[in-house]
Amino acid sequence: MEERRLLFLCLLFAVTWTSSAGLATMSVDLSNEFIKIAIVKPGVPMEIVLNTESQRKTPLALAFRNGERFFGEAAWSTCGRAPKSCFVYFLDLLGKNTSHELVQLYHQRFPQYDLVDDPVSKRVVYKLDDGTQYAPEELLAMVLRYSKLLAEKYAENLISDAVITVPPFFTQNERLAVSYAAKLAGLNLLQLLNDNTAAAVNYGVFRRKEMSNTTQYIMLYDMGASSTTATVVGYHMTKLKDTDGKAFESAQLVVKGTGFDRTLGGLEIDLRLREHFIKKFGEQSKKDAWKNPQALVKLLKEATRVKRILSANTETNAQVESLMDDVDFKTKITRAELESMCADVFERVGKVVEQAVSAADMSLGEIPNVIVVGGGTRIPKVQDELMTAVKRTELGKSLNSDEAVALGAVYQAAHLSKGFRVQPLDIIDGTVFPIIVEFERGASSNTETEVPSEATSKIVKRVLFGRSNGYPQRKVLTFPKHSADFSFDVKYGDLDFLPAIEHSYAASGLRFTVSLQGVSEAFAKHTDKRPKGVKAHFRVDSSGIFELDHAEATFEHEKEEEVPSTIEKISQSITNFFSGSLTNTSDDNATQAEAPSQEINAATGLEGKENVTENSTESAGKVFTVTKVNKTVTVKEKLKDSTMRLDLADYPDKDRLESRKRLNAMDDKDREKQEKEKARNTIESYVFHVQNIIYESKYEKASTENERESILKVFREASEWLEEESGIQAADVYKKKMKTLEDAMKDLQDRVTESERRPRVLEDLKKHLNTSRAFLQLASNNSLGLYTEAEIDVLHKLINETEAWQEASVKQQNAAALTAAPVFRVADIVEKIRALDREVKYLLNKAKFAKPKPKPESKKKDTKKDAGKKRETVIENVTEGASSPDAEPDLEQEYTIPLDEKMSQENLHVDDTVTGDQADSETSTDSTTNSTEQPETETTDQERVTHSAADL
After folding, report:
1. d(CA 231, CA 352)
2. Tens digit of pLDDT for each residue in 839-890?
3. Superfamily of domain 2-264+348-428
4. Is the C or the N end of the chain the one with fewer CB within 10 Å?
5. 144: buried, middle or exposed (CB in 10 Å: 19+, 13-18, 0-12)?
6. Cα(329)–Cα(338) distance, rounded to whole angstroms?
7. What is the rounded distance in angstroms from the CA atom of residue 699 to the CA atom of residue 715?
8. What fold is seen in the domain 431-446+455-574+622-645?
9. Within 10 Å of residue 526's Cβ, how many Cβ atoms?
10. 393-415 pLDDT, tens per residue?
């Protein structure tokens, strides 16, 4: 609770919305074992979403069984019975084919799956026994849709925007796969945010006051289910510019370096334990559990449970009933045994730290704090190894290990969403893998020389984005020697800084060829101009996705232009300043714009700023002095580019439409299932409810024994029908059954409900009759002529008839048996109250709108001598808030009506509240009145009754 309170204060959400409907956004912490969902909406700064089991995290599991689809815990529970159609840990398969080392490792770990390559997309898919195939991207899209439904139910709002977290080591193919899955799920992907960066955001939003111009560094160490990362992050205050170019101060988060191990995590320890259990089971029963998929799933679940227990205890028992062929398994395991069988795993803990420090080009002494995140860091041996690696005696645990990533991501989602304004925290993330371009050297011109180091090679390599380059960022690669159509390859660069196994995992994550067409035509079109080369514009966006933005051929030529004199320039600047030619288009959520593109010369590899040509508007006004000069003009011809992936095919639109249609059909089936279950549960609840209340006192008094037995018979038959039915029936079947039950109970329930409500409503009628008769007595003293005689008679007659009906009906109802149908219903009483209310309101409003009698003119002119005399008082109708008696009254005005029977007919008043202006006016006028000349009679509070249209 304290964390939420601080978080609320830190966020300082200033929600700007025109309608709160649909205003909510979400984040999904996408890890290989669990997903965590967070939302933000008006009134709820940041909150973790609870799933259907009221848990704060949901297993990343999806299963199909008997034509039904299951998610989360429900999916895991089916894995033991149908392991081939229960999919877990499938993030490792995104954007890969069966030849990838990680896919082969996945198949070794989970041999129950049949993995094949799709002939069109060349991507790995699951193949079931019935021939059905599911791509990992489709499975992820289903999980994201399920997450969206959970978030919408929790937020009570529709949600479309989302930030999804991914590991920082995800390659381009993997990031594109997640982006594709988000589109299939119907989500508007605001950003793919690295999970280590999301945790850093969550750390930084609480510590803005501690930031200064001096960078403060921390290391975040995150061990999850299947991977481990270490990240060096710096925080400081900096000056940024909004879209108008105005400077503002903002906190900034910079990722300096990242180290990782894709296979170091809790899953690896679980698998070591499973192998140990398989060996022990073989020794006990002489059976090979490797050949039984159900046994493998059961042992993996037990290994996960044992690992968690050994994190807090030194020993425990592992046991699985009927593991294989009705043979039970049980063995004792100690923490020392676990650490021994995972010794090589724990040795890899410190190597991730070394990678991060090396990537940041820093030393451990420059990093004062090491913060741990992720469930794997709870293992005692992991903590020991990590403290040794970072040379600390204590680790920082100020972040929520399970929820820091989801909460940091949803803060970024609120920042990117248009409906919220948050304290800015600018993020500069860093590329993990360098990106290079390879191309064949173009023909040399007479004025250009070859690079000596590349003289013997036709292939030229140029680094576009180096390791730990900040992004989002743009870069331009210039090809100065190419005058015809050509192509180049884009791939990851030198990965020697990675271990050999990690090198093989990442090498194929980015491989495609770009072909540029139209180069020859552009050069032929501009033969009269100087060629300046072909420029290819690249970018890495905020999601870490690399792309070719566009390509163009550039030329220069000289053009004679008229340049205004210095005096005219000054005059024009003053004119523009006062004419307001600069418009303000600031955005509340504006962040720092991407830095100007850096230009790389393909021939030399040298970097520099890209030449930017600014457009100038025509000067308004008279030109006084003109000078003609030659100006260099740049001409750009846009080129056509096409991209072809070398290992995987792009996601075709046809496949996307088919996948979305397939997912929609599954969603419709799930909704139908939910409607059936809801209808069935409604019947079960109603049967249980009636069987419990039928013999309560109020139901016994309102029914006979025969009637109760008849009702119970119907409900017992319904209960037996529910128990004997095979499978879930159609929703209409349950609705018809429910109608039968409601009809059986209808008369009894009606009598009980009427008898419970009747006394209270009769009391309300009595109060309305008293109030109406009091008003009638006052209205009858009609000295002001407000009402006609017919209007008074109508109200008088209505009161008498209502009183007579009440007396007769109550008498008949009291004489009737409780088991008989009601003589009159509550609805009849309510209608009588409404009739009285309508009539009294009509008369009240007539008095409210009546114009006051004109004030009689004084026969004598007022003199200073008569100024102190008491002025004549007249009855005025003054509406609340009005400045004059003729102003239109407020229908919700309260009226104070004197009820003193001894008051004369002239004392009938309808007093209204006097506005402040009127009160001041009367006070200043009456200030000269003698205090002894006050009204002779006053009406006490006890003699006044306040009538309000709302009360009546």
Report:
1. 9
2. 999 998 988 887 766 655 554 444 444 444 433 333 333 333 333 333 333 3
3. ATPase, nucleotide binding domain (3.30.420.40)
4. N
5. buried
6. 18
7. 16
8. Substrate Binding Domain Of DNAk; Chain A, domain 1 (2.60.34)
9. 17
10. 999 999 999 999 999 999 999 99
For residue 388, pLDDT beyond 60:
yes
Are 253 and 233 within 8 A, CB to CB?
yes
Pairing of strands 58-59, 34-41: antiparallel
This model's pTM is above 0.85: no
Close Cβ partners of 116 (under 8 Å, ≥ 6 residues apart): 98, 124, 125, 127, 133
- The span from the CA of 361 to the CA of 358, in Å, is 5
Please check whether the domain covering 266-347 is classified as CATH 3.90.640.10.
Answer: yes
**If DSSP codes are grouped into helix, strand and coil, which group holds residue 594?**
coil
**3-class SS shares of the chain: helix, strand, coil, % to 5:** 40, 25, 35
- Mean pLDDT, the chain, whole residue set: 81
pLDDT tens digits, residue range 696-735?
999 999 999 999 999 999 999 999 898 887 567 888 888 9
CB-based contact 274:320 (threshold 8 Å):
no
Of the candidates 230, 191, 543, 205, which has an alpha carbon nearest to the alpha carbon of residue 374?
A: 230
Cross-strand bridge partners of residue 896: 911, 946
The two three-digit tokens of residue 465, written as one number: 């984005």
Give 217's contacts (C-beta < 8 A, 6+ positions apart): 232, 233, 234, 235, 256, 362, 366, 367, 368, 369
89 Ramachandran zone, left/alpha/beta (phi>0; psi -120 to 50): left
Question: Which residue intervals of 485-584 are DSSP H helices?
Answer: 500-507, 519-525, 566-579
The 10 Å CB-count burial string (b at 16+, else e) for 81-96 is ebbbbbbbbbbbbbbb
Has residue 264 got a pLDDT over 90? Answer: yes
Pick the residue with more confidence: 679 or 891? 679
CA distance 423 to 252: 11
Cα torsion 520, 521, 522, 526 to 10°: value is: 100
